[in-house]
């Protein structure tokens, strides 16, 4: 974000400071991640009638029947992704663009895909209003990744499939890390894959609840 980003009012600054304090108390101790979260006004990413809940630590409903993820889960995934400032990152499930904005504060460039044109257009507007310019968005089926931009140093999936889509494994760089929620609703877990010279190392992280990764691009929306 550039120095010319809109200046937040005092309440807004205080809400954000309280949010990151809660994140730190919950074990989010990577200073770069904390700073990146502090820079992003979540209020801009939630529907106006839910503005008073923008800094509560919970997921909220947004357009197209989707959700903006719970701040703790955003922080946790971001911390475990270990994003460096030279990294090229792929996100599947742009949604509101909140997680995208945080990744943009950490990475060299972020590519983000959503199946809803409406969500991509709204996210593009929010990111532009925050003068975030190292992000490229695409309306497409995230199951396929973004082959023309691969490989990616980091991949983050923010909707749950039965397992990690094979195209995403293929598009991960050697030494790269991918984090995705997998499994049936009510039994989802975040998993982390690390691509090594000989294959993938896989660890299970946190139990979570994400909206499903639905195959195909959404038609009218
Ligand atoms: N990271 C978002 C929350 C994402 S909710 C945020 O911070 O706001 C999950 C998103 O995944 C939804 O926007 C949904 O449209 C998208 N999604 C579901 N299936 C998809 C697919 N096959 N390809 C791309 N996006 C998909």
Automatic annotation (TrEMBL):
GO BP, sorted A to Z: methylation
Active-site positions on this chain: 69
Pfam families found in the cross-reference section: PCMT
Functional note: Catalyzes the methyl esterification of L-isoaspartyl residues in peptides and proteins that result from spontaneous decomposition of normal L-aspartyl and L-asparaginyl residues. It plays a role in the repair and/or degradation of damaged proteins.
HAMAP family xref list: PIMT
GO MF annotation, one: protein-L-isoaspartate (D-aspartate) O-methyltransferase activity
Family affiliation: Belongs to the methyltransferase superfamily. L-isoaspartyl/D-aspartyl protein methyltransferase family.
Protein name: Protein-L-isoaspartate O-methyltransferase
Catalytic activity: [protein]-L-isoaspartate + S-adenosyl-L-methionine = [protein]-L-isoaspartate alpha-methyl ester + S-adenosyl-L-homocysteine
Protein localization: Cytoplasm
Xref: InterPro entries: PCMT (IPR000682), SAM-dependent_MTases_sf (IPR029063)
Top-rank taxon: Bacteria
EC numbers on record: 2.1.1.77
EC primary class: transferase
Keywords tagged on the record: Cytoplasm, Methyltransferase, S-adenosyl-L-methionine, Transferase
């Amino acid at each position: 974000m550039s120095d010319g980003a809109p200046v937040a009012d005092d309440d807004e600054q205080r809400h954000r400071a309280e949010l990151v304090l809660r994140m730190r108390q919950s074990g989010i101790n990577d200073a770069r991640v904390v700073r990146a979260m502090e820079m992003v006004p979540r209020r801009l990413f939630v529907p106006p009638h839910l503005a008073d809940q923008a800094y509560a630590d919970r997921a909220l409903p947004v357009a197209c029947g989707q959700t903006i993820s719970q701040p703790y889960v955003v922080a946790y995934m971001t911390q475990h992704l270990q994003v460096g400032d030279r990294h090229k990152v792929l996100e599947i499930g742009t949604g509101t663009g909140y997680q995208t904005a945080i990744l943009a504060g950490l990475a060299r460039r972020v590519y983000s895909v959503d199946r809803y044109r409406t969500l991509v257009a709204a996210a593009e507007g929010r990111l532009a209003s925050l003068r975030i310019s190292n992000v490229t968005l695409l309306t497409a089926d995230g199951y396929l990744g973004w082959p023309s931009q691969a490989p990616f140093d980091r991949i983050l999936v923010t909707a749950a499939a039965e397992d990690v889509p094979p195209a995403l494994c293929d598009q991960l760089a050697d030494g790269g890390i991918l984090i995705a929620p997998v499994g049936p609703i009510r039994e989802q877990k975040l998993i982390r894959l690390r691509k090594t010279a000989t294959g993938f190392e896989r660890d299970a992280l946190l139990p979570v609840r994400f909206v499903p990764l639905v195959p195909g691009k959404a038609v009218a929306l």
